[in-house]
Structures are given as structure tokens and as C-alpha cells.
Write a structure and sequence with these properties.
The protein is built from 24 helices and eleven strands. By secondary structure, it is of the alpha+beta class.
Length: about 700
């Protein structure tokens, strides 16, 4: 049961009534204590004429009522601090008083504030009665215990209930003793007696504590929703105790407490019957000590009380067993209701999942009769549920594939499941669908297979994509090989068969190393690990020559491109392989021709150097003679002769320049001089002069 100070009651009618009951009881006790304490401090002896015996309620007793009353008010107002302080004060006051009685000493507390002017000649003036001190201790423990925990266990709750009954019972005993003039009921030994006003205060405190514990409503289902007023069991205790004290000892008046036991039937806790039995037993014992009989033997009176207590406890046990049975039935019904609700929620959730699935989910009997059909099945196969439920599943199967269904039924009867069974089924319009089936047997309570559940996924698009992929791979002009990270070959195309000389079934599921020359195999696992550590499209073996090994053992030069492919099985490698044998041969031929040309160029350079060097000397002799002729005979012959000599001199000069240029050209490959810009116009003029004769003869115009 939950009854922390912060949650004594809820904002309901019953909760407010409970809080008002606690606050009312606390207010009565606090006002009683304040009034009596004020009278003591004012020495208002005239008050005793209006309320005879009022000063039998000692000043410390009045302080105890003030503390207890404000403690209950603090509980009702959910003020934990006030309740704890007041409860601690009352507990210290009660324990200190009991210590004084038990040790026979005085702690100086009896008249520390006010002197006892009313009964100064009694043995302990100003000291509360021992039964008053005990009752205050019980009330303080109940107040402190109420505020100590946010949750009170099943052991603490009945203890608090019992404390409330004891406080009320001790007050009722004192009150009945005064009403019946039985001194033993309100006086323990020769000590101070409990006054009638003190008894009234304890009656109020007891009712207030019981209201705290038995408050109806609240957040917890363990609180006490009673169908009878709380004052009824208290009133029964009071009336039966008064009856018991007023009757002779020979009469078993205590049996009248049986209705009190039956009152527990209207409380939610089964152990309330035992709480009432304890209270009734204590009241029976108190009544025994409260009166003395000289007629009936003591043993007979004791036997009377023992038999009465046995009858009360027997009744309480019967009530408790009945309440436990009722509680067990309610708990069982609650568990069943909860289980049914959870099962219903699970069923609703399962139905929602099935209906919202894009896959077709259906159930069928072992004879193939369809039992259920979800929206995914309607979308995939085109049939509405009302069209297909009750029909045979063979309606969806092509005639030539009925053997598949027989195989499936055979596996189901053996209790086996079938995962990802790829097959073909029919749409309502006759189209063929590629379907992946997952089939599980349905068992009854005895474990017998009574049907099957099917999950069908339309893989037509995937199959078309796979087919297009295979067509592209087959049509590729290069060899295509797909392998996993372990190097196992998963796919090859026709070009691979032609390039390496293997048939397809000879290399599928084999290691890729069967296509690698032996001298390169040791380094290949490292290359594979390097690729999968950073999978991205790239060329393989950059900067080095790659070779493949054909089935006959011959090697071919290759160029390989690697591409990572993401699949449900993980990342795979798709290798594009080109046979570059022809390119290698062309490169070799080009290299050979280049070497020949370089050799020819070297020979030509050598010839040009030698020729230009050897031609210079005779040409220099010819040029000298022609120049001498021009110098010596210019003007001595006719104009025609001068023109011819001038042409000869110009020709030999240009021939010398050409030989010099040829010699320079032969030194180009050897010279270290950098290239320099030239005047293209000057070069053109020289070329035109060299070709002037040819130009004139041909009649060309430039």
C-alpha cells in the first residue's frame, strides 16, 4: 500500500473525506492539549468547576496531545517535516516518562514548565500516567512510520493498522473504566491515572491513525476501499469492551467481538481479520484485569477468556482464508484478463504486420486449400481474398510445375521448413511470376502438422535484372570474372572460356588462382586483401606487366580492371580482363622499327658529316677561281660574260652555305646548343634563291 505523506489521498470524494478525518482527529487532539496546557499555565482553577477532573490531564500529557495532533495535521496536509518533528517530540516525551517509571528516578521533566498545583501530594506530581506514556509511544511510532517510506511493505501496513487499534483500544479502556467506575481500567498500579479527557484524546488519535492507514482511493490498488464507515469497527470495540466490563466474569461477553472480525470482510486486505483479532484479544485481556470477581474461580475466568480468544482467532482464520481465496481468484482472473489482453494485442499486431507486408502471406491446409490471404498476396497475384480463400493453391501453379507442390507438401508433412525456394507462379491475368517462397509448417497443440504458412516474394524484376546483367556480361568484348573475397569464381562469360581455354563448368567455384601463373600466386592473396580493404574501381597491377595462365599452361599478357559489386552476400569483385597479346606484338614491332630508324638516322648523320666535310675543299677551290675571274676580268669582257661569272660566283657561295648548313645539321643530335628563334623571312629568301633556276624553268610564280 502507498501512503507517503505526499500521497495520503487523491483528489476524490473518498480521499478528501479521509484527509478530513485525519485532520479532524488531529485538530481535536491538538486543541484539547492547547486548552489544557493554557489552563495549567494560567492556573485557571475555575476551569475545573466547569470540566471536573480536567487537571487530571497533566501538563506534559497536554504537550503530548499537542505534538500528536499537529503530527496528524502534518500528515493530512502532506507536510512530512511537521509530522516528523512532532512525532519525534512525542516519542521522546513518552520514552522519557517510561524510563522514569522503570528506573524509579526523575529526569526533571514532570514539572519543568508548570508545577502541579492540583495534585501536589501524589507520588509523582505532574507526571503522565504509565498507560498514557505507552499510548503516546505507540502513537508517535505510528506517525513516524507513516512518514518514513514512500512505499510501505506488507509487513509495515498491518503493523501500522495494529498501532492505530492499540491507541484507540487503550483510550477506549480508560473511557470505559471511568464510565463503569472500574479503576483498574485507567490506572496501572499505584501510579498516576489516565483521566477521562486523556482517554477521549486517545480515542480521537486512534481514529485518526486508522483513517491514515485505511484511507480509501489513492494511486495504489492496494489501498483500502471500504464499504463501511471507519468509525464502525471502533464503535464496536468501544461497545463490546463496555459490555464486557459491565458483565460478571462468568459470562463470556468477549464473544461479542465476533462482529468486529466480520467487519474485516469489507476491507481489501485479508490480514485485516487478524488485526481485528489482535485488538479484540487485547481488549478481552484488558477487561479481565479491569474487574475483580470473588465468586467465580480465577482459573474459570482465565479459561473463559482463553476459549473466547480461540473462538475469535478461529473466526479470524476462517475469514482470512475466505479473503485469501477471493483474492487468489481475483488475481487469477486479473492474470487471465491480462494474458487475454496481451494475446489480443499480439494477435492484432501480428494481423497488422501481415496485412501491411508487401510480400504475399497466406496459410493453407495440407490438402492445399487456402485459408488466409493478405493484401500483399492481392497485389502480387491479382486475386481478392474473397475470390481465392477456400480455393486450391494449385490454381496459382503452372500445370508443368505441380510436382513442386507435391515436393513442398512432402517436406511439410515431415515438419520441415523450406527457405527461399525459387519457382514460377501464375497471376490472375495469366502472366508468369518469378516467386521466392519461404514455407513453414503449422502445428496444432499436440505438435501435429495441420497446415503451412507461405511467404511469397515477387522476384520477377530481380530475375529480369539478373538476366539483363548476364546478357551484358556475355556480350562484353572482354573476359568477365566475378569472385568473392576468398577468391572463389562465381561467374564467367563466354569470352573467358575463349581466352583461357576452360569450359565454364570447369572453373566455376574454383579458386581464381587457377588463372594465375605459378610465379605470381604467392603475392596474389595480399593483392586481394588490399582491394577489399579499400574496394573501389581501379586497374590491377599498375606499373607492372600482368599475365594469365591458360588451361594448356601457356601464358598471355593481360590488362585487368577491378570493380567492387555490392550484393546481399557481401562485396564481390568483377574483373574485366583484356588479352593484350596483339598490342604487345605491335609494341614490339614498333620498338624494332624505331631502333632501325634510329640506326639509319645515325648512318645518315655520319654520311652527311663526312660528305659535307669532304665537299668543302673542292668547292672552296672552284669558288676561289670563279671569284678571281670576276675580280680580274670584270668589265673586260662583254656584259653577257660578266653576268655568267656573277651567277657562278653566287652559285658557289650558296653551295658553300648549303654545305655549311648540312654540316651543322649533322651535328644537331650531338650539339648541346639550345634551339634559337630564326627570321623565317630570311630563311624563305635563301630558299627562293636556291630554287630560282628551277622556278624560272618551270614557269612557276611565288
Amino acid at each position: 500500500m502507498h501512503f507517503p505523506v505526499e500521497d495520503i489521498s487523491e483528489s476524490t470524494k473518498d480521499g478528501w473525506a479521509s484527509r478530513n478525518a485525519v485532520a479532524g482527529a488531529g485538530s481535536f487532539a491538538a486543541l484539547l492539549g492547547l486548552a489544557v496546557a493554557t489552563a495549567w499555565m494560567a492556573h485557571a482553577e475555575s476551569v475545573n468547576t466547569v470540566f471536573p477532573g480536567i487537571f487530571n490531564l497533566k501538563f506534559n500529557t497536554a504537550l503530548g496531545f499537542v505534538g500528536s495532533g499537529f503530527g496528524l495535521i502534518g500528515i493530512s496536509q502532506r507536510n512530512k517535516r511537521i509530522a516528523e518533528v512532532c512525532g519525534a517530540f512525542v516519542l521522546i516525551l513518552g520514552i522519557a516518562t517510561l524510563i522514569e517509571y522503570l528506573t524509579g528516578t526523575s529526569l526533571g521533566l514532570d514539572q519543568v514548565c508548570v508545577a502541579d498545583f492540583y495534585t501536589p501530594n501524589i507520588p509523582y506530581p505532574g507526571r503522565p500516567a504509565p498507560n498514557t506514556a505507552v499510548t503516546f509511544v505507540l502513537a508517535a511510532i505510528a506517525i513516524l512510520w507513516t512518514t518514513s517510506q514512500n512505499r510501505l511493505s506488507a509487513v509495515r501496513v498491518p503493523a501500522l493498522e495494529l498501532l492505530g487499534f492499540l491507541v484507540f483500544s487503550l483510550g477506549a479502556e480508560g473511557m470505559l473504566g471511568h464510565l463503569q467506575a472500574v479503576g483498574l481500567a485507567y490506572t496501572w498500579g499505584s501510579y498516576t491515572q489516565m483521566s477521562v479527557f486523556t482517554s477521549a484524546g486517545f480515542l480521537a488519535l486512534g481514529l485518526g491513525l486508522m483513517a491514515v492507514v485505511w484511507q480509501p482511493g489513492g494511486k495504489s490498488q492496494e489501498s483500502h476501499p471500504t464499504r463501511i464507515p471507519l468509525w464502525l469497527p471502533a464503535l464496536l470495540c468501544f461497545l463490546v469492551l463496555m459490555l464486557d466490563i459491565g458483565t460478571p466474569n462468568g459470562i463470556a461477553a468477549g464473544i461479542a467481538y465476533v462482529p468486529l472480525i466480520f467487519c474485516s470482510l469489507w476491507f481489501s486486505r485479508p490480514h485485516t481479520a487478524f488485526v481485528f483479532a489482535i485488538a479484540a484479544t487485547l481488549l478481552t485481556m484488558l477487561a479481565f484485569f479491569a474487574k475483580v470477581s470473588s465468586v467465580v474461580p480465577v482459573w474459570m475466568v482465565i479459561m473463559n477468556r482463553v476459549l473466547t480468544a480461540c473462538a475469535l482467532w478461529f473466526t479470524a482464520t476462517l475469514v482470512y482464508l475466505r479473503r485469501r481465496t477471493e483474492q487468489a481468484l481475483r488475481e487469477s482472473e486479473l492474470r487471465d484478463a491480462t494474458a487475454r489482453k496481451e494475446a489480443q494485442e499480439k494477435t492484432t499486431l501480428l494481423v497488422s504486420i501481415v496485412e501491411s507486408s508487401d510480400d504475399a502471406i497466406l496459410a493453407k491446409k495440407l490438402d492445399g486449400t487456402i485459408l488466409s490471404w493478405n493484401r500483399g498476396a492481392e497485389r502480387i497475384f491479382g486475386y481478392k481474398a474473397e475470390e481465392i480463400v477456400g480455393q486450391k493453391v494449385t490454381r496459382l501453379i503452372p500445370d508443368e510445375m505441380h510436382a513442386d507442390e507435391e515436393y513442398i507438401l512432402g517436406q511439410l508433412k515431415l515438419g520441415r521448413s523450406i527457405d527461399h525456394f525459387e519457382t514460377v507462379r501464375l497471376h490472375k491475368d495469366g502472366r508468369r511470376l518469378n516467386i521466392s517462397l519461404t514455407i513453414s509448417p503449422i502445428h496444432d497443440q499436440d505438435g501435429k502438422v495441420i497446415g503451412a504458412s507461405k511467404i511469397a516474394r515477387d522476384i520477377t524484376e530481380r530475375k529480369l535484372a539478373e538476366e539483363r546483367f548476364h546478357l551484358v556480361v556475355e556480350a562484353a568484348p572482354s573476359s568477365m570474372v566475378m569472385a568473392d573475397r576468398t577468391g572463389k569464381i562465381l561467374l564467367v562469360n563466354r569470352k573467358t572460356e575463349e581466352m583461357f581455354g576452360y569450359r565454364r563448368n570447369e572453373i566455376l567455384d574454383q579458386s581464381i588462382e587457377c588463372l594465375i601463373p605459378e610465379r605470381f600466386r604467392a603475392a596474389h592473396p595480399g593483392d586481394v586483401a588490399s582491394f577489399f580493404s579499400d574496394p573501389q574501381s581501379r586497374a590491377m597491377g599498375a606499373g607492372r606487366d600482368l599475365f594469365g595462365r591458360r588451361k594448356d599452361g601457356t601464358e598471355i599478357p593481360l590488362e585487368i580492371g577491378l570493380n567492387p559489386i555490392e550484393t546481399p552476400q557481401g562485396i564481390l569483385t568483377l574483373a574485366s580482363i583484356l588479352d593484350i597479346s596483339l598490342r604487345k606484338k605491335a609494341e614490339e614491332e614498333l620498338r624494332r622499327k624505331t631502333e632501325d630508324l634510329m640506326r639509319s638516322n645515325q648512318d645518315l648523320e655520319q654520311f652527311a658529316y663526312v660528305a659535307s666535310h669532304d665537299l668543302q675543299e673542292p668547292l672552296r677551290a672552284v669558288a676561289g677561281c670563279v671569284q678571281l675571274l670576276q675580280q680580274r676580268y670584270k668589265g673586260q669582257m662583254d656584259a653577257r660574260a660578266d653576268e655568267f661569272i656573277a651567277h657562278a660566283v653566287d652559285g658557289t657561295s650558296r653551295m658553300q652555305a648549303l654545305i655549311e648548313d648540312l654540316l651543322s645539321y649533322s651535328r644537331v643530335s650531338r650539339a648541346e646548343n639550345p634551339l634559337k628563334p630564326v627570321d623565317i623571312g630570311f630563311a624563305l629568301d635563301i630558299a627562293l634563291r636556291n630554287l630560282s633556276t628551277a622556278i624560272q624553268e618551270s614557269g612557276m610564280e611565288i
